[in-house]
């Protein structure tokens, strides 16, 4: 893998974690690396930190991403001074041994991003789950009913009058505009037998969403019954959260009655104005026509309906299962859900829906 491809993949990981690693910053990093020894991991660390981070909040995210992407690192200030002075070092000449560690580990991370999680070893899957925990879970915003102070906008009569009474005169007119709030996301996660290989990774993604926006995220498992698991996913530690979820869900690896569970959800809850994400392979044991009816109701309530099918990422995929055929007319987006890269893409979609 080329140096450019390696660092572009790293920038993509940073963006998924909430760092504003845009095209311009990535190009700045690549130009900086032309004057450094890219076989020196510390110099690469500081080059990325100095070019990709825009605020103190970015630093812990950057460190976690660098550790996940390139392996652990205890960086020294000596390397930082070397980078800032722009000491020239040859980019070429990477040989066998330690000099290849950076590219090899980055290439491995990039491969893992796109590999189907059911084809990973336990160690590889654990590494993907660590990277998945870095997702920022950014959310599209919608207009709130509440107002906030602004320099321009609608005249705020009450604040203007209060200020005038306090000062004894109308010094200036005060204004207000509607505030914004993150758009609500409802995730329905299929944990039936046909989703066994994907369910844990799916719930790890749900954990990242809940941790990022706990007030604007609701997660339910669907199988033979509808089970809310949002509270369990609020635990800071992913392992603890997964253990709590396992105890809360009574119907792991059973059948799927999506139509009945969706009807149950719409009776007890509301999806009005929310982005609804249904993660399932579409194997419906119930009546597909019932699923179609409930999907029609859901589409009228929701801001957007996104269906995540793990098989969508495989070549030659066709939505031929009964559940998929019934739901397809009411889906706004059908996306893959088989890999880390697929969930990064889904996270971006939620940020711009």
Descriptive account of the structure:
This protein is an alpha/beta fold. It has three domains: 3-114, no CATH class; 143-182, no CATH class; 185-352, von Willebrand factor, type A domain (Rossmann fold, 3-Layer(aba) Sandwich), CATH 3.40.50.410. The strands form two sheets. The chain has a six-stranded mixed sheet with strand order 6-5-4-7-8-9. It has a three-stranded antiparallel sheet with strand order 1-3-2. It contains 14 helices and nine strands. The chain starts with a helix and ends with a helix.
Question: Features of this protein?
Answer:
Rossmann fold; 353 residues; 6-stranded mixed beta sheet; 3 domains; alpha/beta; 14 helices; 3-stranded antiparallel beta sheet; 47% helix
Topology:
Layout: H1 3-16, H2 23-33, H3 41-52, H4 58-70, H5 77-85, H6 101-114, H7 122-132, E1 141-150, E2 154-155, H8 157-167, E3 175-182, E4 185-190, H9 196-212, E5 217-222, E6 226-228, H10 238-248, H11 258-268, E7 275-279, H12 288-301, E8 304-309, H13 322-327, E9 333-336, H14 340-352
Helix pairs in contact: 1-6, 2-3, 3-4, 3-5, 11-12
The CATH fourth-level homologous superfamily of the largest domain: von Willebrand factor, type A domain
Instruction: From the alpha carbons, calculate the radius of gyration and give it in angstroms.
Output: 24 Å
Question: How are strands sequenced across the largest beta sheet?
Answer: 6-5-4-7-8-9
Q: Major sheet: size, sense and barrel closure?
A: 6 strands, mixed
What's the N-to-C terminus distance?
33 Å
Order of helices and strands: HHHHHHHEEHEEHEEHHEHEHEH
Mean of residue pLDDT values:
85
Low-confidence stretches: 85-101
Helical residues, percent: 40-55%
In DSSP terms (H or I, runs of 4 or more residues), the helix count works out at 14
Number of strands: 9
- Which structural class do the helices and strands define? alpha/beta
- Per the CATH scheme, the topology name of the largest domain is Rossmann fold
The backbone outline, from C-alpha atoms, is flat
Which CATH first-tier class of the largest domain would you pick?
Answer: Alpha Beta
């Amino acid at each position: 893998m080329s140096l450019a491809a390696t660092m572009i993949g790293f920038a993509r990981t940073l963006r998924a974690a909430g760092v504003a690693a845009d095209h311009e910053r990535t190009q700045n990093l690549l130009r900086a690396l032309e004057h450094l020894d890219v076989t020196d991991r510390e110099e690469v660390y500081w080059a990325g930190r100095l070019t990709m981070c825009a605020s103190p909040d970015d630093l812990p995210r950057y460190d976690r991403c660098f550790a996940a992407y390139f392996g652990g690192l205890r960086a020294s200030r000596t390397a930082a001074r070397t980078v800032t002075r722009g000491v020239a070092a040859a980019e070429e000449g990477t040989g066998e041994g330690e000099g290849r560690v950076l590219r090899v580990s980055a290439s491995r991370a990039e491969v893992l991003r796109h590999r189907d999680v059911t084809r990973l070893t336990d160690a590889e899957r654990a590494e993907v789950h660590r990277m998945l925990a870095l997702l920022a879970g950014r959310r599209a915003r919608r207009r709130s009913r509440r107002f906030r102070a602004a320099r321009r906008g609608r005249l705020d009569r009450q604040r203007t009058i209060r200020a005038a009474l306090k000062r004894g005169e109308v010094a200036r007119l005060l204004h207000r505009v509607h505030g914004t709030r993150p758009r609500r996301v409802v995730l329905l996660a299929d944990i039936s037998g046909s989703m066994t290989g994907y369910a844990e990774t799916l719930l790890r993604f749900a954990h990242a969403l809940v941790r990022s926006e706990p007030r604007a995220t609701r997660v339910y498992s669907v199988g033979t019954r509808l089970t809310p698991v949002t509270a369990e996913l609020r635990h800071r530690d992913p392992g603890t959260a997964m253990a709590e979820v396992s105890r809360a869900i009574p119907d792991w690896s059973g059948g799927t009655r999506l139509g009945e569970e969706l009807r149950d959800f719409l009776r007890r809850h509301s999806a009005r104005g929310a982005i609804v994400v249904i993660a399932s392979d579409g194997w419906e044991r119930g009546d597909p026509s019932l699923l179609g009816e409930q999907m029609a109701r859901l589409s009228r309530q929701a801001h957007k309906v996104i269906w995540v099918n793990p098989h969508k990422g495989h070549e030659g995929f066709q939505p031929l299962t009964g559940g998929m055929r019934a739901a397809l007319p009411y889906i706004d987006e059908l996306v893959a859900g088989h890999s880390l890269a697929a969930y990064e893409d889904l996270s971006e979609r939620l940020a711009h829906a």
